[in-house]
Write a structure and sequence with these properties.
Length: 287
Amino acid sequence: MSNVICAGHLNWDVTLRVAALPDPDGEVNVDERRCGGGGSAANVATGLSDLDVEATLVGSVGDDDRGRRALDELVGDGVDVDKVVTVPGAETTTKYIVVEPSGEVMVLGCPGANEEFEASDLSAATLAAADHLHLTSQRPETAARLAERAREHDVPVSFDPGRRIGERGYGPALTSVDYLFLNDREAALALDAFDLREQTLVLKHGPDGAEVRDGERRTAHPGYPIDVVDTTGAGDAFAAGFIAARVGGADDRRALEVANACGALASKAPGARTSLAWERIRAFLGE
């Protein structure tokens, strides 16, 4: 069985469904409230575990009830959390996710412990035994150092910097990994600012599918028409599907097919996580 390390955010999510986002100085009722573990790295690790990949999470939580509940959920989902750092006296990072009927989201973040881990919290032995390292939002210097250490052990690295790519100094990390996962807005920022000719770009086009750009080679997949419920975690599910397929030996076309199926299933369900078991993926694909 393949082993993938996911390094980055582990949060506690509070998801609020509303009929519409309020106007300035306005107010709307909350139709539904859901709480549970979230965070991009944790979401990808959970998806990988669903897809029969051994997933190890590197991250940090506070020494509080939300952190303990988030870790318990991950253990229940089969994720190895031994490398997660619990920070004494700190609060687990909480994200408030407001979802409107179209499935689009607005995220409100509260500071917490989710970037307190260090690259040194991942041992050389654990890294050397991995088949892949996946990075998500975290301190830029931590991401760059993890990518550097992975290269020393010939471990392929992917990076999904997330919606704050334009606000953080991710340049050294972006230009030192093998795969970059970017949506259209993020790609516009990154391609304008950095020389990414050495990176394989995995570009997510939302309802228009996704593509892989590897030098001059292009591989595209149109995606699947669905009724969107909640896009929270859809990009993480996409990444889990792509990575699981690639470490399993699939080519880019098959990896995009699986990734788009995972993203679609995540978008059809409320919350940041849904089951990505292979039987669900194959049923969705009609296989």
